[in-house]
Q: What sequence folds into this?
């Protein structure tokens, strides 16, 4: 799918430093995201995976370093140019972050009305189709987020992230809390959407099955830096205690075998 | 170029109609494509289906030409799926070849996701909707009363059960609540009743001056504060201050599943959370009422001294001579009743919260409105009762 290294990456993170008080989360972190790839970001709890995501999308101003998106330094841009670039992001937050006072359809229609300037009936018609695309039944559209199950909230959040047909999709633990069948369907959905829409996907995950099933490259966050960012095979082969424990522990091996048997079929 | 032909046209050679789709079917062109579809259908003489942006069943296309399609995203694909009908589009796509695989995948994915068109339901006449709303709100009030009575029973049972078991008394929780809802409310209660006391005295002075009976201002202030105003003002303040706090505290615990966790530990949320709050308010409310009485009378006394030349010592002498002790008890008797009602309404609304921030807000508002309503209602009934009894 991706010709490694032939294109300029659409996101370049250079020398990123993030700290909260005296607690340093990232110290000189570098990362590239290439066009059209699904990049999985893994790391132990507290290694700053979500903070990295928030830094790239501009929610967390970094203490130092630069972030180039589509070749432009987001932090140095004037606000209106910045908003223009931010419209090309779709972000799905860890807990969904759906607006609890709006129905699912209204949640998805908000960006379509506010940003794309559609009238309400058009936006809601389009929202219905996005909800279907995210794999939700049509009757879920008129429900409020509080009455949805965890898996449905994730799908509704994905529908909202896809509302403006973004170029880059940021997903924060999309399969956490989903049952294995739902998680598998979600992985396939992400791949279908990537292939169909030419999306670039930045995926923070703990789910080894997701890594094996859908990621083109894996970035390992450890010791305040990106330890490695490469294809799964090459990352697995790196001699590092954490990586060995992560990929060659019992759960890692099980996920590997599952992925093997899937591709053998 | 014909209007709309920029995006789509129909090619009907040798009897079968082929839909030719071209241009950029993307979100940025959404409005333009909508207009193009409308113009296209209107021109083909299908005004009714033009409104729904759907091909009429009479005009069935047997093929689709996507070779001129420069770009497409999910928005454009959804429009196309709606126009042709999702099932029909899937069918037509399977006959396509020469189209890039990912574009085909996108169209197929959207076509599969697009809900099939359903006929819109008949609109409900306004008078029926109005009747429905009235019915719903009456039903809602009924449910509210039933729930409140049920909760009252639950809490009375819990209070009775724990009354003679000092080992189960939660002294720390009660004291903490008394501090929050009682002690911390003293300044605001004192200030408010002081000001109302002064206002009442001014009012009395103005009206009674015409009859040369300004001396009765003392009786007016004493009477009104002992029997009504101190307890009523305190109750309204506590309803706004404490009922809302109780609802928000219990509501966010409910939203966070903490109530469920308490229940799973084999503990009773009523014993643990509600009973200490009720007891705390039963202690705090009479004390605050007393503060309210004193400071209201002091307010009246100040106005009497400044505006009416009735010195404080004279004020107190008249007060002692003219106002019987029973008025104090009649006012005080209402305090625990109000306290109990405010506490259970606040707690019950907290338990009704359903897992969202919005719900916490709605129930907090509801708790304040309900408790103020109940307080004033009970006060009116009590006034009636006292009058009939000749107290």
A:
């Amino acid at each position: 799918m991706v010709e490694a290294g032939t294109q300029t990456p659409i996101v370049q993170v250079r020398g990123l430093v993030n700290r909260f008080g005296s607690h340093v989360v990232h110290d000189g972190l570098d990362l590239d995201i290439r066009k059209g790839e699904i990049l999985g970001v893994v790391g132990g709890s507290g290694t700053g995976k979500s903070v990295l995501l928030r830094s790239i999308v501009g929610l967390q101003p970094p203490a130092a370093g630069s972030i180039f998106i589509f070749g432009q330094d987001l932090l140095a841009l004037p606000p209106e140019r910045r908003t223009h670039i931010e419209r090309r992001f779709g972000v799905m937050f860890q807990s969904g972050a759906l607006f609890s006072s709006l129905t699912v359809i209204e949640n998805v229609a908000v960006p379509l009305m506010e940003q794309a300037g559609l009238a309400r009936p058009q936006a809601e018609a389009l929202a219905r189709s996005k909800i279907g695309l995210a794999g939700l039944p049509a009757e879920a559209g008129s429900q409020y987020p509080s009455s949805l199950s965890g898996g449905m909230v994730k799908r509704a959040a994905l529908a909202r992230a896809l509302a403006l047909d973004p170029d880059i999709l940021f997903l924060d633990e999309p399969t956490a809390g989903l049952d294995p069948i739902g998680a598998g369907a979600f992985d396939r959905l992400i791949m279908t959407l990537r292939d169909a829409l030419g999306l670039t996907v930045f995926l923070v995950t703990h789910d080894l099955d997701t890594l094996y099933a859908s990621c083109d490259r894996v970035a390992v966050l450890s010791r305040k830096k990106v330890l490695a960012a490469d294809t799964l095979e090459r990352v697995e082969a790196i001699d590092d205690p954490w990586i060995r424990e992560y990929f060659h522990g019992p759960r890692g091996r099980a996920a590997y075998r599952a992925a093997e048997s899937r591709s053998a079929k | 170029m014909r209007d709309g032909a920029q995006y789509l046209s129909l090619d009907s050679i040798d009897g079968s109609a082929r839909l030719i789709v071209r241009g950029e079917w993307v979100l940025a062109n959404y409005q333009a494509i909508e207009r193009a579809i409308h113009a296209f259908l209107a021109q083909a003489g299908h005004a009714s289906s033009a409104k729904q942006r759907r091909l009429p069943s009479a005009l069935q296309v047997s093929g689709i030409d996507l070779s001129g399609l420069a770009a497409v995203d999910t928005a454009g694909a959804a429009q196309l799926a709606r126009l042709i009908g999702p099932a029909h589009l899937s069918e037509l796509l399977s006959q396509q070849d020469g189209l890039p695989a990912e574009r085909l995948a996108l169209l197929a994915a959207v076509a599969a996701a697009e809900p099939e068109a359903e006929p819109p339901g008949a609109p409900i006449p306004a008078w029926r909707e109005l009747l429905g709303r009235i019915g719903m709100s009456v039903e809602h009030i009924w449910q509210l009363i039933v729930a409140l009575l049920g909760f009252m029973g639950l809490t009375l049972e819990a209070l009775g059960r724990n009354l003679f078991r000092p080992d189960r008394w939660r002294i720390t929780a009660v004291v903490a609540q008394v501090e929050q809802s009682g002690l911390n409310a003293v300044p605001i209660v004192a200030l408010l009743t002081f000001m109302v006391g002064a206002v009442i005295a001014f009012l009395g002075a103005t009206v009674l001056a015409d009859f040369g009976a300004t001396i009765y201002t003392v009786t007016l202030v004493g009477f009104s504060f002992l029997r009504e105003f101190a307890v009523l003002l305190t109750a309204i303040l506590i309803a706004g201050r404490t009922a809302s706090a109780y609802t928000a505290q219990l509501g966010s615990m409910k939203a966070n599943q903490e109530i469920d966790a308490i229940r799973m530990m084999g503990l009773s949320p009523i014993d643990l959370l509600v009973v200490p709050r009720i007891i705390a308010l039963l202690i705090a409310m009479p004390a605050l009422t007393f503060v309210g009485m004193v400071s209201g009378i002091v307010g009246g006394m100040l106005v009497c001294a400044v505006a009416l030349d009735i010195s404080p010592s004279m004020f107190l002498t008249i007060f002692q001579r003219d106002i019987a002790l029973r008025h104090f008890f009649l006012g005080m008797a209402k305090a625990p009743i109000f306290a109990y009602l405010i506490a259970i309404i606040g707690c019950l609304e907290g338990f009704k919260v359903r897992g969202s921030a919005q719900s916490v807000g709605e129930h907090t508002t509801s708790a304040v409105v309900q408790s103020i309503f109940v307080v004033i209602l009970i006060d009116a009934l009590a006034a009636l009762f006292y009058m009939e009894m000749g107290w």
Summary: Chain B has a mean pLDDT of 86. Residues 38 and 51 of chain B are 7 Å apart (CA to CA). Chain B has 14 helices and three strands. The longest strand of chain B covers residues 16-25.
